[in-house]
Amino acid sequence: MAEAEAKVLPEATVARLTHYLRALNALEAQGLERTSSGVLAKEAGVNPAILRKDLSWLGSYGTRGVGYVVRELAEHINNTLGLNRDWRVLILGAGNLGRALSGYAGFAIRGFKVQAILDVDPAMIGSRVGQLQVEDSRDLASVVEREEINIAVLAVPGQAAQDLIYELSDLGVNSVLSFAPKPLVVPRGMNVRRVDLSTELQILAYLAVQS
């Protein structure tokens, strides 16, 4: 009999799972072993019905009248999100944004270890960024192999980002977070998440005008 295909969760559910995990970690830090859907939903900032529907994708992890075992549910969400794996991150671009990202403590806390940072600017290459030394972007292939990189972060201009997308795809790095200020053409099989800071600010400006 053919093996059952793994469920592909809706993107909105995946996004909310990260909030549930953060809330569960906070509850565990408070010494709580169990929690209810109402409490967890409040901590995560969602409706309890939405929370229960999201968690139903993961199987049955709650008991009516008893609630959820905090550590057990947190570990299951960790496994579902793939956070039990070793995620080794490469940052491309050692400007202000790249340097700030390389020093973000939240990466390590959530299991993402920044292994290297690269740039094309000779003035940047060889400088220190925390515990890392900026390396030459021309050494991308050797750095990916040496550090066993499986996630890349693009903190470079638009055209440079597009060129790097193709290079990373050829090197087998298929998970990319892009801060480039333009949409990118993405090869088949590659997952790219785009963070457009200017767009987010424009949305905030609109909401401020409406309020």
From TrEMBL:
<dbReference type="GO" id="GO:0003700">
    <property type="term" value="F:DNA-binding transcription factor activity"/>
</dbReference>
<dbReference type="InterPro" id="IPR058236">
    <property type="entry name" value="Rex_actinobacterial-type"/>
</dbReference>
<dbReference type="InterPro" id="IPR009718">
    <property type="entry name" value="Rex_DNA-bd_C_dom"/>
</dbReference>
<feature type="DNA-binding region" description="H-T-H motif">
    <location>
        <begin position="19"/>
        <end position="58"/>
    </location>
</feature>
<comment type="subunit">
    <text>Homodimer.</text>
</comment>
<dbReference type="InterPro" id="IPR022876">
    <property type="entry name" value="Tscrpt_rep_Rex"/>
</dbReference>
<feature type="domain" description="CoA-binding">
    <location>
        <begin position="82"/>
        <end position="183"/>
    </location>
</feature>
<dbReference type="InterPro" id="IPR036390">
    <property type="entry name" value="WH_DNA-bd_sf"/>
</dbReference>
<dbReference type="Pfam" id="PF06971">
    <property type="entry name" value="Put_DNA-bind_N"/>
</dbReference>
<keyword id="KW-0804">Transcription</keyword>
<keyword id="KW-0520">NAD</keyword>
<keyword id="KW-0678">Repressor</keyword>
<protein>
    <recommendedName>
        <fullName>Redox-sensing transcriptional repressor Rex</fullName>
    </recommendedName>
</protein>
<feature type="binding site">
    <location>
        <begin position="93"/>
        <end position="98"/>
    </location>
    <ligand>
        <name>NAD(+)</name>
    </ligand>
</feature>
<dbReference type="Pfam" id="PF02629">
    <property type="entry name" value="CoA_binding"/>
</dbReference>
<keyword id="KW-0238">DNA-binding</keyword>
<comment type="similarity">
    <text>Belongs to the transcriptional regulatory Rex family.</text>
</comment>
<keyword id="KW-0963">Cytoplasm</keyword>
<dbReference type="InterPro" id="IPR036291">
    <property type="entry name" value="NAD(P)-bd_dom_sf"/>
</dbReference>
<dbReference type="GO" id="GO:0003677">
    <property type="term" value="F:DNA binding"/>
</dbReference>
<keyword id="KW-0805">Transcription regulation</keyword>
<dbReference type="InterPro" id="IPR036388">
    <property type="entry name" value="WH-like_DNA-bd_sf"/>
</dbReference>
<dbReference type="InterPro" id="IPR003781">
    <property type="entry name" value="CoA-bd"/>
</dbReference>
<dbReference type="GO" id="GO:0045892">
    <property type="term" value="P:negative regulation of DNA-templated transcription"/>
</dbReference>
<comment type="function">
    <text>Modulates transcription in response to changes in cellular NADH/NAD(+) redox state.</text>
</comment>
<dbReference type="GO" id="GO:0005737">
    <property type="term" value="C:cytoplasm"/>
</dbReference>
<dbReference type="GO" id="GO:0051775">
    <property type="term" value="P:response to redox state"/>
</dbReference>
